[in-house]
Design a protein that fits this description.
The chain contains eight helices and 17 strands. By secondary structure, the chain is of the alpha+beta class.
């Protein structure tokens, strides 16, 4: 977009004899990109500052001398370890429309946009940098972008394609899920969460940088860019799961992994405060283990779940699936599913060391799945009934080490 505008602007200037306008730095307030989120009805979200584990590539520019010329190309090598970076991010569910406006501000010039993305494609809590493979069509002055797999390790380079093809850690938004709202490039850019999900996948952190480009009467000047970040979760827009709630990330994970979904026909409600039954948590566990899935009719799935749980020794013939599940019973089910590992003994005053669930509580606390239920961390509350919000949070921590309590 930047090159297209600059070429058009300069061409008109030369052909028509126009004077390039002067917009000196500091003369006017720096224009800002206008970013708006049109959320699904009833859904609320808020920007949150947080630390993200980012796996990035180091880019090295190499010059290769030849007899009569020098070849320059970039080599991409993924860093040995993820780094931790802080972003202020707005989580966006499916059904959200994102609009980027004020691309050509009153102050003159234009806003040059660049897009970076990191995806947690395997749900391990590490966001891997996405690399754009692009091919420039010089005949039509267009660029076609394609994402290479996020698991690309490297090193790799565009050594043999430096004149036409290349790799890049940034791309133009209109080539990567965004499109102009109107019929020309002066229009706002817009994208849906669905289109970005289709392009990048779920759990993708997207960063848009906007830099004001203007002419000061002598040369083109690019001001310091500003950044906007949002997270495409790939999850439905549950009207009863605010983005800043403690269980929101676990709900996104559980839905993306086909462990559970909405509780109403329209799939707009998750019911995080609804008490969870024994058959429900066992169903969640069987789906997480790949035994059953949400595509199986509920009656048939319940039979498969009970057969699986009975084979693992988790239930017997006295099983009552409609009974509400307590904290002790929940961690016991999870512990048995994950091979009943031993752990140091906990010291809760309300957990008898000889109780059938005691080792499961020890394991859950030692592995950051849950902890005490009071401020002093002296009580576990084993008989307290779990809600759907509690259960998906336990499962998220059990299956994703990065989500565990520290």
């Amino acid at each position: 977009m930047e090159k297209r505008f600059a070429a058009l602007f300069l061409a008109l200037t030369l052909c028509l004899g126009l004077v390039v306008p002067s917009f000196a730095a500091g003369e006017r307030e720096t224009p800002r990109l206008e970013v708006t989120f049109d959320l699904p009805v009833g859904y609320t979200t808020a920007a949150q500052e947080g630390e993200y584990r980012i796996w990035e590539f180091t880019v090295e520019t190499v010059k290769e001398p030849h007899e009569n010329y020098v070849t320059t190309y970039d080599v991409y090598t993924r860093n040995e370890e993820p780094s931790v970076r802080t972003f202020t991010v707005t989580p966006l569910p499916m059904g959200t429309k994102i609009t980027l406006d004020n691309l050509y501000p009153e102050q003159g010039g234009w806003l040059s946009l660049k897009l970076k993305a990191w995806s947690d494609s395997d749900g391990d809590g590490v966001y891997e940098e996405r690399i754009f493979y692009w091919e420039a069509n010089t005949a039509y002055s267009t660029t076609d972008y394609t994402l290479i797999p996020s698991e690309k390790k490297g090193p790799f380079s565009d050594k043999d394609r430096f004149s036409i093809w290349s790799y890049s850690t940034t791309g133009d938004p209109e080539q990567n899920g965004f499109h102009f709202v109107g019929n020309d490039s002066y229009s706002p850019l817009s994208a849906s969460a669905e289109s970005l999900y289709e392009y990048f996948g779920s759990d993708t952190l997207i960063q848009i940088t906007a830099a004001h480009v203007y002419h000061d009467g002598k040369e083109w000047v690019t001001r310091e860019p500003e950044e906007f970040c949002f997270l495409v979760t790939g999850s439905p827009a549950f009207t009863d799961v605010p983005a800043n709630e403690w269980y929101a990330g676990a709900v996104d994970w559980a839905v993306s992994k086909d462990i559970t979904n909405g509780t109403n026909a329209a799939k707009t409600e998750f019911s995080p405060g609804r008490n969870c039954t024994h058959i429900q948590i066992l169903t969640f566990l069987s789906r997480a283990a790949g035994i059953t899935s949400t595509s199986i009719p509920w009656d048939k799935e319940q039979m498969q779940v009970q057969n699986w749980a009975r084979e693992k020794g988790m239930i017997d013939d006295s099983f009552n699936g409609s009974k509400e599940c307590t904290r002790a019973e929940a961690v016991n089910y999870i512990w048995q599913t994950l091979d009943k590992e031993d752990a140091p003994a906990s010291s809760f005053t309300d957990v008898d060391p000889n109780a059938s669930y005691a080792k499961a509580v020890d394991w859950a606390v030692a592995n950051g799945v849950t902890n005490g239920d009071n401020a002093a961390q002296t009580e576990f509350s084993p008989n307290k009934v779990c809600t759907r919000g509690h259960i998906v949070t336990f499962l998220h921590r059990a299956y994703v080490p990065e989500a565990r309590l520290k």
